[in-house]
């Protein structure tokens, strides 16, 4: 099997290319467009964003000339632009998912409900879909995966995001026959469950980031969502609700992940976890029962055992997404997907005291944060999945800070795609049990 770089070079030499359609020209999308413009055998031929200037800016920063950017909301015009070697810029995501000139769709919106619609439409149009939208994936991923399989297309998360990077370590270790004890990622800021766009504003301005996005990192929601995606791909579960959030450097990880009865700090194996002190890296804790394997691991300076750490000190977010695009198109392979079904759930917790009649906002906002539970625990508590939270969800009762919000506690005042698909998924999973 040739490497992806050589496959892409072959494709370009043969006069072909993977034609990518992108929805969302924010920070992640812009970086991906520029990265792909450097590559052989691939191009982002159409991009949609609610702000057309964001699309034009993304293309021009990647080196595309203004004259080669066709702004249109008419499908025929967009397709003709692509056929003539130009790129299409639109405010209508439906053009991207329905165009016959697009092979692979990338959702970089970060909004669960929008991502749900994009993925659904992509699959119905028999196009591979790459999700940078982990929030949508952990909410309805099992349904989307089943639909994609039935349609003969690939549904996948992305290389470069932490779940994809963790999955690469897991696949490597599992293929070699190691026991995989734990999978995890670093958190690069202290946990602040009260973080909101106002409290994050100053740091966000310094970093050139969205205050809302930064708040979703600080309050732990993104970490919970990311490790939920890993759980659904592997069957690993949190050792306790919300995980532990240990503090350690890389060297200390093998000891932490020994069982408590053996002097460690966890109660189970096959767990997902996050660590303060190893960001921006991801890790897998592995072990072996074979004396010769342990001898060689020690010889290779991997530690004294019985646990060893595989550590990747970087993840390049959307700059690595082209690898997932190519794997889907060339090999019909996913980087990460919820192969084990709904194993874990990121549930909704009140960030502050909330009043009856109050509307919730969204991830990284002022009202709620996410916490990981096993899916069985979440179902027993009737917990509201965080990916269903938006400004159309209203509280039917007052909820105290730190209290779990359940389905009974809310009313949906306007139908949304992700709620409809989640009901379909719940029905599908119930029929399988």
TrEMBL record:
Domain Aspartate/homoserine dehydrogenase NAD-binding: 24-153
Gene3D superfamilies linked to this entry: NAD(P)-binding Rossmann-like Domain
Domain Oxidoreductase DRL-like catalytic: 160-321
Superkingdom as given in the UniProt entry: Bacteria
Any one Gene Ontology molecular-function term assigned to this protein's record: NADP binding
InterPro entries: Asp/hSer_DH_NAD-bd, DRL_cat, NAD(P)-bd_dom_sf
Pfam family, one: DRL_cat
Protein name in UniProt: Uncharacterized protein
Species name: Jeotgalibacillus malaysiensis
């Amino acid at each position: 099997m040739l490497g992806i770089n050589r496959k892409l070079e072959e494709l370009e030499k043969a006069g072909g290319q993977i034609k990518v359609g992108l929805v969302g020209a924010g920070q992640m999308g812009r970086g991906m467009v520029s990265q792909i413009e450097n590559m052989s055998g691939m191009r982002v031929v159409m991009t949609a964003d609610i702000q057309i200037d964001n699309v034009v800016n993304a293309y021009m920063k990647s080196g595309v000339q203004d004259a080669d950017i066709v702004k249109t909301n008419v499908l025929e015009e967009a397709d003709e632009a692509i056929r003539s070697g130009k790129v299409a810029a639109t405010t209508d995501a439906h053009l991207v998912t329905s165009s016959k000139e697009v092979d692979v769709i990338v959702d970089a919106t970060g909004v669960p409900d929008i991502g749900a619609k994009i993925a659904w439409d992509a699959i119905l149009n028999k196009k591979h879909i790459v999700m940078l939208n982990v929030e949508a994936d952990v909410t309805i991923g099992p349904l989307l995966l089943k639909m994609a399989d039935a349609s003969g297309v690939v549904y996948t998360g992305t290389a470069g995001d932490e779940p994809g990077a963790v999955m690469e370590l897991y696949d490597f270790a599992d293929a070699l026959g190691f026991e995989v004890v734990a999978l995890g990622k670093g958190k690069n800021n202290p946990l602040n469950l009260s973080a909101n766009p106002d409290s994050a504003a100053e740091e966000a301005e310094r970093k050139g980031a969205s205050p809302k996005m930064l708040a979703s990192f600080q309050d732990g929601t993104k970490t919970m969502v990311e490790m939920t995606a890993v759980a659904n791909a592997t069957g690993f579960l949190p050792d306790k609700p919300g995980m532990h959030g240990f503090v350690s450097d890389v060297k200390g990880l093998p000891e932490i992940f020994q069982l408590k009865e053996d002097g460690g700090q966890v109660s189970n194996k096959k767990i997902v976890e996050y660590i303060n002190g190893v960001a921006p890296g991801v890790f897998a804790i592995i072990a072996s029962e074979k004396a010769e394997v342990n001898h060689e691991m020690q010889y290779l300076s991997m530690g004294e055992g019985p646990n060893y750490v595989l550590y990747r000190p970087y993840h390049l977010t959307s700059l690595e997404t082209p690898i997932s695009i190519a794997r889907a198109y060339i090999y019909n392979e996913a980087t990460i997907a919820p192969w084990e079904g709904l194993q874990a759930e990121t549930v909704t917790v009140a960030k502050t005291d909330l009043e009856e009649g109050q509307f919730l906002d969204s991830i990284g906002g002022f009202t709620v944060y996410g916490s990981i539970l096993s899916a069985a625990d979440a179902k027993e508590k009737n917990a509201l999945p965080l990916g269903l939270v938006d400004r159309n969800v209203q509280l039917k009762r007052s909820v105290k800070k730190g209290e779990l919000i359940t389905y009974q506690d809310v009313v949906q005042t306007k139908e949304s795609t992700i709620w409809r698909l989640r009901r379909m998924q719940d029905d599908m999973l119930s029929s399988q049990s």
